[in-house]
Design brief:
The protein is an alpha+beta fold. The chain has a domain of 126 residues: Aminopeptidase, CATH 3.40.630.30. The protein has an 8-stranded mixed beta sheet with strand order 1-2-3-4-5-6-8-7, sandwiched between helices. The chain is globular and about 40 Å long.
């Protein structure tokens, strides 16, 4: 159990995206997102549709998929359709890749539908969440961990201001650990 305070905000509005809690109407797009082979290429591959459907049923529906603090659906602001998911959470203590020995750090993670790639929407969503977190939480390291082969995610992290700290092996692939100070995202 983490002792870190977590982000309490449940909705964040940006220019083109809305970060909000999931709704049952998001179910089909959540399933598509998690079963898309290209989207899941660097997170262990796509999940089986039946597994995602079973998981959503087990948690009481798609509306419960973002119950955890700091977990959001990324919705197109104009249409309110799900284009991705985003989370800022405490990195599990048993995971490799740390900047504080034995510490707890925040970690970003996101998935975007292929039809949303290349438009800067992931950057906009990440910036909005990081600014909200910087306004609410104490300064602390924030991590991004991604497969080194995932050049799109690495470029996004660098554009956001994250710097490479190290690499390590996990899930049969080299992972890159990037970090930034949370309060470097404070506005003003």
């Amino acid at each position: 159990m983490s002792l870190l305070p977590m982000l309490s905000v449940v909705e964040i509005v940006a220019e083109r995206v809305l970060l909000r809690k999931a709704r049952d109407a998001d179910r089909a797009r959540l399933v598509e997102l998690r079963t898309d082979a290209e989207v899941a290429a660097y997170i262990g591959g796509p999940r089986l549709r039946e597994d995602i459907e079973r998981y959503l049923d087990a948690i009481g529906g798609a509306a419960n998929a973002t119950d955890a603090p700091g977990t959001f659906v990324i919705a197109d602001k104009a249409t309110d359709e799900l284009i991705g998911t985003f989370e800022i959470k405490c990195r599990a203590p048993d995971q490799p890749g740390r900047v504080i020995e034995g510490g707890e750090e925040l970690e970003l993670g996101y998935l975007m539908r292929r039809d949303a790639w290349g438009a800067g929407l992931a950057s906009e969503a990440a910036t909005a969440v990081l600014r909200a977190a910087a306004d609410e939480l104490p300064d602390q390291p924030v991590l991004v961990v991604t497969q080194t082969a995932n050049q799109r995610s690495l470029r996004l992290a660098v554009r956001l201001g994250f710097r490479t700290v190290s690499t390590f092996e996990q899930f049969d692939a080299e992972q890159t650990l990037l970090a930034a100070a949370l309060h470097s995202f404070t506005v003003g």
